[in-house]
Amino acid sequence: MMRTYAGHSTAEKSNALYRGNLAKGQTGLSIAFDLPTQTGYDADHELARGEVGKVGVPIAHKGDMKALLDGIPLDKMNTSMTINATAAWLLALYIVTAEEQGVTPAQLQGTTQNDIIKEYLSRGTYAFPPGPSMRLIADMVAYTVEEVPKWNPINICSYHLQEAGATPVQEIAYAMSTAIAVLDEVRARVPQELMGRVFSRISFFVNAGVRFIEEHAKLRAMGKLWDELGRERYGVEDPKQRRFRYGVQVNSLGLTEAQPENNVQRIVLEALAVTLGRDARARALQLPAWNEALGLPRPWDQQWSLRLQQVLAFETDLLEYPDIFEGSIVMDGLVGELLEGARAEMAIVAEHGGAVEAVPYMKAALVESHRERIRRIESGELKVIGQNVYTETEPSPLTADNDGGIMTVDPEVEQHQKEAVAAWRAGRDQGAVDAALAEVARVAASDENIMPATLAAARAGATTGEWAQALRDAFGQYRGPTGVGEAAGAGVGDDAALEQIRDEVERVSEGLGRRLKILVGKPGLDGHSNGAEQIAVAARDAGMEVVYEGIRLTPAQIAASALQEGVHVVGLSILSGSHRELIPSVLEALSAAGIGDVPVVVGGIIPPADERELLAAGVAAVYTPKDFDITRIMHAIVALVADRNGVSASA
Amino acid sequence: MNGGELGARLRDGDLSAAPAVLNLVESRAPRDQAAIAELLASIAPAALGGEAPAHVVGITGPPGAGKSTLLSALLHGWRERGRTVAVLAVDPSSKRSGGALLGDRARIEFDPADHGVFIRSMAAGERLGGLAPATRAAAHALAAAFDVVVIETVGVGQSETEIADVADTVAVVVQPGSGDALQFIKSGIMEIPDVLIVTKADLGQVAVRARRDLHAALRSLGARETAVVAVSSLPPAQGIDRLLDALDAHRAATDVPARRLSARRLHALADFVEEHGARGLRALGGRRAAEKWLAAQAPGLDVPSLEQALAERAAAAGGGAPPA
Question: Which residues form a coiled coil (chain B) (predicted)?
């Protein structure tokens, strides 16, 4: 099956995009929701500012879902929804929309991502605490196995673990541990004879990096482990039900902003990792666009990715042979090594009490792995063509004329969606909505399955924000572990570069009178915290006091913290493309708090034109993926603070 | 920066002075030391006409015991009772780099528009297992303006003692099933706290058993006054009101002026020893003589003034130069 992950702006525009892609030969839908929808807020919530329609489509109610899928036959469609914390709600909207098309739940095919563990570990779009979140997932699995039997209620994502820095062993172990946590929870609520069917509905979403031989071995190892788990832990007899089914989005972490055309060959090689051997071949493949590190891809960029797949599938002989690694000693050896490592790591997670309890442990382990990866790139040990080696380049015609070659979202979209949500609320039977939400709240506090009440609320016309708020009230707010406190510091073999930066921090701190203090945080709803975490850990290792505020902050929160903490510099990270709205708001909030003189540095996927605007608005420095050398960023920050406070950083 | 002015703002209850006060007391720059002394003298009991009215609460416990979640719930409770709250969240520093990750703030829920709440993260600095050097000074200063000052530290068995010398009430947080606190209390590693908080009461039987065990241990040590309160910070939060009452009750039953006075004298002597060493102490005629002399000084003096007086006395006795 071939799909591209898509959705943006409004339900209507995304609908047109989907129809266009289906006409070009795409055979399924992959829906990207915007961050407010993913985290359970309507467009008019304070936290939604700047995020509406940015990384996906805003879906606030059944009317939006109907517009999104207008004219697309849901009985024939295989739909993948990248939705986690609010998966139960979006599935309910999908079921209700299908009903209105005359399609029964039993006919629906597709996948809800629904893997909350990796949200705590990597992606950050959780809404509720781990316990209640796992309960929602188990409710969905128990519901779909009976009522929507062709649906994959959960798609366990090792993908995001690799993006967060996971080694192949960590990727395997944490994904399998997550599956165990879910299956154990479901086992408590369905009869044993259904476990085979439950097991067979669990699918995976994996990553493939450019080391494509090892990556292929990783997938073979996962298949083996999965089969073993089904047989031994859950007593699944039927081998077909134990088959390891997975989809793939190949690696984005390794895609570079420098010489972005090289990403095309990286993507092709990564695609080979998941297609080479038939015994471990992906069932669905998504390829990122070549310019993803620059910003939101345009339709033409996505078409290129689809064509890459089509060349592999239809021009090459890739799909013509049985498993080409059968009997390979080298491949078997690689698989064996990975299995051994993964089993050991799974045992550690089990000792922590399972994946839910082990979230802080796994998070810290990932932050450390990612830190190590960055260290290897900085030192040149890990070669990245065009970034830390062979950096000389001719001018690129691909990015020459159009300022980075990316698509931007019209800021009008947010206003439009805010008004549309208000109009929707005004036009519905409020009494019915209130009653339905009260029922959701009641069920949330009980141990009944959440799905029937959720479906009723969807039919009554409740909104995403209302449904999620009912659950937030019942379950409580939650902030995930950051992993940075637990992550080990720089090793004993501290190199000269580290000593040098520490000396600088020491000197500037002497001049300031107290230790250089930095606030690191992420405004808005974007939960991709890897960058912010790496900056926080590096700043601590450099000797700074680091107030790490984590994700999902409003400009007012950032300003209040900066003031109360007395920081010398503020570092913000944004990857969702909402920097144009949020960064100026933070600057205003800092000025309003009387600390407009505290310098602000920004990191993220920020196109050159926006960079210029941010600098003009008063941002002291902007860092993008091409600034991969964190040590250099640290030097710049120390120099900035020294300069602003009239002290000297040099000896 | 003018320390006297900042002190005056605190005395007037101007909570917006807090960030500047912290920036000042954290400074180790020689140029700021006079201002710090001025600030502390201006909010000393002698200047206030009595002890600062705030309730200084120490909250400590091992990592993962649920301190931050509990603190969020407590903040909310105090605000509902109309009290302003300052939190000093102390985190350890790295020995090698001197750097520190101050992560607690991220886990404490608060409304940025609420000016009655102030949260400051502080690195513990070089002091082993104890309080940041500036934490004590900050607590004294903030107590002049806020209704409640909370000092939050990590650890079991190390930091309670130091916290006890600053706080009117020391609460230790334990999570059911860990058993650590129980062991530490029995073995005498940990001082007996004023209030013991058992978190995660939603765990049911385990929490009930933990509470019972702690009660029994405290009784066997003769510490019948120590309140043991079970709380659950997850909604629906339980026990928070009871905990607030227990903290209030402890303070009401405590001779706060006496406790703070003895703490100030203790700190002055500790600071003196840190500065002048054993030789300085000998010049004062030994620890017991120094303590006796301190006990005869005016009760309203702040710590730096007392330390200064000790230094002058030692210098007069020829045992070390007075500080510049």
Answer: none
